[in-house]
Amino acid sequence: MAPKRTKRKSPSPDPQGMFAGMTVFLIEDGVQSLRLQIWKQKLVQMGAKVETQLSEKVSHVFAISSDALFHHVDDDRLARFKGHVLLYQWLEESLAAGEKVSEDFYILKVDPEGFDIFDKSLKAKLANRNSSSYDEHSHCKRIKSSHEEKKQTNEEKKGDIETNSVSWASNTEPHFPSSLTNSPEISSTQDKDVGMQMSFQYSPPDLNKGITEIFGKLVNIYRALGDDRRSFSYYKAIAVVEKLPFKVESADQVKDLPGIGKSMQDHIQEIVTTGKLSKLEQFETDEKVKTITLFGEVWGIGPATALKLYEKGHRTLDDLKNEDSLTNAQVIGLKYFDDIKTRIPRHEAQEMELVLQKVAEDIIPGMVVVCGGSYRRGKASCGDLDIVITHPDGKSHKGFLQNYVKRLKEMKLLREDLIFSTHSEEGTDSGVDTYFGLCTYPGRELRHRIDFKVYPRDIYAFGLIAWTGNDVLNRSAG
């Protein structure tokens, strides 16, 4: 008979630990329950006290955003609060460093009117920072004085869009909202500030990039080789490791986590010990693997096609430019290879979503347009735009996509077509209409991938889940 497994005991709290003297209140909105549990455990183990409500005893409040903060704490109580309001990132970086890091770049001091104010010393520090290496918005989220001001800001943006609806409807050069200027950067400081505030989202700092970046390369390699099983295994491991609130220094720290089997543990141990992985190095020195992986990154080229192109003697992307067998979509994917690989900043994705919603409303009132994918999952940037569309009445979505694409092309927002299939009017393929193509942010020629999926109302929820979840979620749902 196998010996009984003894339950692992949690370490006893250390009264002299790193967080000794802190009494903490955690705003739970937007934080995964497992992550919250780990943070509470670490705080208590390292000397802090965790309160279940905001009181005079609390010295520190942690929140992921002002929305989460104001949802739990009203303006008056916040104005009377004498402690510190910090971003959760301070806690993660302190745990990673093994000591409390400076609160300067994570603290939000709130004045009696509800606005956050920074110490003069902090302002001086920020002024001396090189803008190319430091972005104050990635650390400091300004708190609005009330939800009314946020509503007013949104109304102003909405009004700005409505003001320009006439020019969108015409065939003249499109005029975009002030937040979507014709210059590569948002024109005014105020608009840029609003854009950055709106795009702020809590996301894990990925303290283990050394591991996740290597695993990411293996995901792409195995996918290009047609080995979906191994590719998915590394993808699942990345999803677990990138969310850890501590830096992995030994495989023993992750051996009980889901998706981290024996071979994955061995890989992690090799990476944390040597900083590299011999398996990846072998792949990267193999000409066939390198070439097939490269070709597989071109939109529209799958593992079988990549292998055929390799067997034809092609070794570089330039070689493919003279390949007659490529489809039109593959030629476009090759032409804009570098553009498509460029990620979209979150605030730009949000602005594009606003434009797409307004254009849809102009064509058929009541259309529901949602940007899914990594944007809806709260990521700081997106690889492409996944747009999910429906109409509450269950019938107005039929035939909508053709008019929508036409209007967006007139605006020069949509540029090249990759896939366009319509089924809503015929009732085939569950009545789902699809468009894949390339788009441009106003004032630029840089291409980004954009997908539209128009669903009947009765299956819209399933479509939204499918086009919001990552590969792990979609594979599990399948």
Structure, described:
The structure is a single chain. The protein has 22 helices and 13 strands. The model is unreliable at 110-202 and 472-478 (pLDDT under 50). It is of the alpha/beta class. The strands form three sheets. The protein has a six-stranded mixed β-sheet, sandwiched between helices. A five-stranded mixed β-sheet has the order 8-10-13-12-11, sandwiched between helices. A two-stranded antiparallel sheet has the order 7-9. It folds into three domains: 23-127, Rossmann fold, CATH 3.40.50; 209-326, Orthogonal Bundle (DNA polymerase, domain 1), CATH 1.10.150.110; 344-473, Beta Polymerase, domain 2 (2-Layer Sandwich), CATH 3.30.460.
Topology:
Blueprint: E1 23-26, H1 33-45, E2 49-51, E3 60-63, H2 66-72, H3 75-80, E4 84-87, H4 88-97, E5 107-110, E6 116-117, H5 120-128, H6 147-163, H7 165-169, H8 189-199, H9 209-224, H10 228-241, H11 262-274, H12 278-284, H13 287-296, H14 303-311, H15 317-320, H16 328-335, H17 337-341, E7 344-345, H18 346-363, E8 368-371, H19 373-376, E9 381-382, E10 384-390, H20 400-410, E11 414-421, E12 433-440, E13 447-454, H21 460-466, H22 471-477
Parallel strand pairs: 1-2, 1-3, 3-4, 10-13
Antiparallel strand pairs: 4-5, 5-6, 7-9, 8-10, 11-12, 12-13
Helix pairs in contact: 8-18, 9-10, 9-13, 13-14, 18-20
